[in-house]
């Protein structure tokens, strides 16, 4: 197989009598994702996409094994360039300097949607088998009439000089009736591709759209389309654009011209000649987008501001908005205010259009995305309503609203015990059709900060950083246990293990004792009562009262799953118990989290220090099953491929932490707590 060049994504068997071009070999070490490849198509070679199995069997062939490119237009003996992006790479975050937001503007039928299709194809955003003409025109009416009615957005990934760029494209309608769509989309961009039919030249909507783009201070890249047509005259049309656009804009902008003392026009000397239909000049357009359109300003640190440029109603998800984050960051679960209606909403979902909707956790300044929101009143009141109704029937239940950075909006509830908590959750889910997550019960700590402030902290995620806190005080209760004398020993052992401070023991009768301890409330809120009952075979009883706060050596124990901190699993524990709790918690989580296709590390950390670690082994498919005997190198190759796949999955994989895991801290071995 001397004439076969391989790389992980490119397989290039050539016809027997064609010598392999030397540069194929240079490609072999490239990573398949996020790479731009250039190769030469040898004479006689015909090109097939790997999706097309029947044709792919024919030799010679060029096979691309991941979604990427449009090769059909490439001619034998010509150079082609293509970028390869693996599916999930589309969601990788790039720095703001590598984001480009642009629109395509043109007169009707000058080829915007056809160009958008090609851009999606060339960047590997849409696979060939998913591709259909006018991909972004997804309304039936748009397809029937062959026109764009609604603006559409898509996020593409493009590799330029070995760096990944995120290109946000907004396709706009050309017809005059829908020009308000154009104005909205332009406000969300820094640049625009001005597509002009090279056979027809400047038309009314070309001018109207240019004005709008200039008003929005956009960088305009002129693109002369349809150069494949016999009547195409790109040079004449370039000149026409310069003259007509320059003249008209200056007429409209007299004031501006005199102010700036210069003529505003459009330089068409570097206009790109393209044929969207034939796929000519598409890479030049992509390169120009990166080179000529400025990136958005990096204002991630500022408070959130976003511009909504479109919206629609989804029967299942409610109102879906298209927006561009102008400043700050928007996260799923954020409370946001819509300035037009001055109403508060809860951000249910945040996503990107790639071009199908994909959910993400957050979007930063400069990014374009979609989101669905629920009116803060509606969402909040649904749970509140359910709790209020349940309270009618369960007077012991108490609740107050609370917000958590990790979980969003919720209620802090008071229960009688663990069983009561489970019952309330079950009832809310069954009777009111809600899906809820309950976190492990916690107490309110008092944190004395180095600047003299005292803050109350009910949630480990709200604990000030280690450097900012002087001391932590925890609530202490006086607990009185009444028990037959046979169980005195075991109950004292229980209290001792829960950091109890012995106060006194009295015999009320010959056989019955009363033991008093001072106990941190945090040690009692979990399963203390259950333990007391189980150790005394149900004979002991207890009562407690709050006595005050006491300084204690407490620290925050973080849990990392696959390298990410899972905020709701963080706990505040006593320093002496941190190692035991950390070890037990990681072991418990290992039992509770379902196996993934890749290895998942579960770690307990204090600050940056890992104090306990477990690993959830990967589910393994027997990739050697189909190998009957054969060379060992074949098996090694399959195993290596599997290991690489798992490594990739580990980098992108998201793990769903089941509800039981959030309660894991309560279910640790009784010796630990
Ligand atoms: N020959 C040739 N035809 C093209 C080219 N680009 C687009 N077309 C054709 O021009 C027609 C209009 O193309 P569209 O992409 O729908 O034009 P549009 O600007 O998006 O139209 P609206 O969305 O309605 O404004 C279609 O029939 C395309 O096949 C090209 O480069 N060469």
From TrEMBL:
Localization in the cell: Mitochondrion inner membrane
Record-linked SUPFAM superfamilies: EF-G C-terminal domain-like, P-loop containing nucleoside triphosphate hydrolases
Primary enzyme class: hydrolase
Protein name: Translation factor GUF1 homolog, mitochondrial
Species whose genome carries this gene: Rhododendron griersonianum
Ranges where the Tr-type G domain occurs: 97-297
Function recorded in the entry: Promotes mitochondrial protein synthesis. May act as a fidelity factor of the translation reaction, by catalyzing a one-codon backward translocation of tRNAs on improperly translocated ribosomes. Binds to mitochondrial ribosomes in a GTP-dependent manner.
Keyword annotations from UniProtKB, A to Z: GTP-binding, Hydrolase, Membrane, Mitochondrion, Mitochondrion inner membrane, Nucleotide-binding, Protein biosynthesis
Membrane topology: Peripheral membrane protein
Biological process annotations from GO: positive regulation of translation; translation
Record EC number: 3.6.5.n1
GO cellular component: mitochondrial inner membrane; mitochondrial matrix
Family that this chain belongs to: Belongs to the TRAFAC class translation factor GTPase superfamily. Classic translation factor GTPase family. LepA subfamily.
Catalytic activity reported: GTP + H2O = GDP + phosphate + H(+)
NCBIfam families: small_GTP
Binding locations of GTP: 106-113, 171-175, 225-228
Lipid metabolism among keywords: no
Gene Ontology molecular function: GTP binding; GTPase activity; ribosome binding
Domain of life where this protein originates: Eukaryota
Pfam families, sorted: EFG_C, GTP_EFTU, GTP_EFTU_D2, LepA_C
């Amino acid at each position: 197989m001397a004439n076969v060049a391989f790389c992980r994504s490119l397989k290039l068997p050539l016809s027997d009598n064609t010598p392999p071009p030397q540069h194929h070999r240079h490609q072999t070490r490239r990573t398949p994702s996020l790479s731009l490849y250039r190769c030469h198509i040898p004479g006689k070679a015909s090109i097939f996409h790997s999706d097309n199995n029947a044709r792919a069997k024919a030799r010679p062939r060029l096979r691309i094994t991941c979604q990427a490119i449009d090769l059909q237009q490439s001619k034998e003996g010509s150079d082609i360039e293509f970028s390869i992006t693996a599916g999930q790479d589309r969601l990788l975050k790039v720095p703001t300097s590598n984001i480009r937001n642009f629109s395509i503007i043109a007169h009707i039928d000058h080829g915007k949607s056809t160009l958008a299709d090609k851009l999606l194809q060339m960047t590997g955003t849409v696979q060939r088998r998913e591709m259909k003409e006018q991909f972004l025109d997804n309304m039936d009416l748009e397809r029937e009439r062959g026109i764009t009615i609604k603006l559409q957005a898509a996020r593409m990934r493009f590799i330029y000089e070995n760096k990944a760029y995120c290109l946000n494209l907004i396709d706009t309608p050309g017809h005059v009736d829908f020009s308000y769509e154009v104005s909205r989309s332009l406000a969300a961009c820094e640049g625009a591709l001005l597509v002009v039919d090279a056979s027809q030249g400047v038309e009314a909507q070309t001018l109207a759209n240019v004005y709008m783009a200039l008003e929005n201070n956009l960088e305009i890249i002129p693109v002369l389309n349809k150069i494949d047509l016999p009547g195409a005259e790109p040079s004449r049309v370039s000149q026409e654009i310069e003259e007509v656009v320059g003249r008209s804009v200056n007429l409209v902008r007299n004031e501006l011209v005199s102010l700036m003392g210069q003529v505003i026009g459009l330089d068409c000397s570097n206009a790109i000649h393209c044929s969207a239909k034939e796929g000519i000049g598409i890479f030049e357009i992509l390169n120009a987008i990166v080179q000529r359109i400025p990136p958005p300003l990096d204002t991630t640190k500022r408070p959130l501001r976003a511009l909504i440029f479109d919206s629609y109603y989804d029967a299942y998800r409610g109102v879906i908005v298209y927006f561009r984050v102008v400043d700050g960051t928007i996260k799923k679960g954020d409370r946001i205010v819509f300035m037009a209606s001055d109403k508060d909403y809860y951000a249910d979902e945040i996503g990107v259009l790639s071009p199908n909707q994909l959910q993400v956790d957050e979007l930063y300044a400069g990014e374009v995305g979609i989101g669905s929101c629920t009116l803060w009143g509606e969402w909040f009141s649904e749970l509140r309503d359910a709790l209020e109704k349940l309270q009618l029937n369960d007077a012991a239940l108490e609740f107050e609203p609370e917000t958590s950075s990790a979980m969003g909006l919720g209620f802090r509830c008071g229960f009688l015990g663990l069983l009561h908590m489970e019952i309330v959750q079950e009832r809310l889910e069954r009777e009111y059709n809600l899906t809820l997550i309950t976190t492990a019960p916690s107490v309110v700590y008092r944190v004395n900060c180095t600047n003299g402030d005292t803050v109350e902290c009910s949630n480990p995620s709200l604990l000030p950083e280690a450097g900012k806190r002087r001391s932590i005080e925890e609530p202490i209760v006086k607990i009185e246990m009444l028990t037959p004398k046979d169980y005195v020993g075991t109950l004292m052992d229980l209290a001792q293990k829960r950091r109890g401070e012995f106060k006194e023991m009295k015999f009320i009768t010959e056989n019955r004792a009363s033991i008093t301890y001072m106990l941190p409330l945090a040690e009692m809120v979990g399963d203390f009562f259950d333990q007391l009952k189980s150790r005394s075979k149900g004979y002991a009883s207890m009562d407690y009262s709050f006595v005050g706060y006491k300084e204690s050596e407490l620290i925050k124990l973080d849990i990392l799953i696959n390298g990410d901190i899972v905020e709701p699993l963080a706990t505040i524990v006593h320093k002496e118990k941190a190692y035991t709790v950390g070890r037990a918690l990681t072991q418990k989580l290992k039992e509770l989290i379902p196996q993934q296709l890749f290895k998942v590390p579960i770690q307990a950390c204090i600050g940056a220090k890992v104090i306990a670690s477990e690993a959830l082994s990967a589910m393994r498919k027997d990739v050697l099953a189909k190998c009957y005997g054969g060379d060992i190198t074949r098996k090694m190759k399959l195993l290596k491929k599997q290991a690489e796949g798992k490594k990739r999955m580990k980098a992108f994989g998201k793990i769903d932490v089941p509800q039981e895991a959030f309660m894991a801290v309560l279910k640790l071995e009784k010796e630990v707590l």
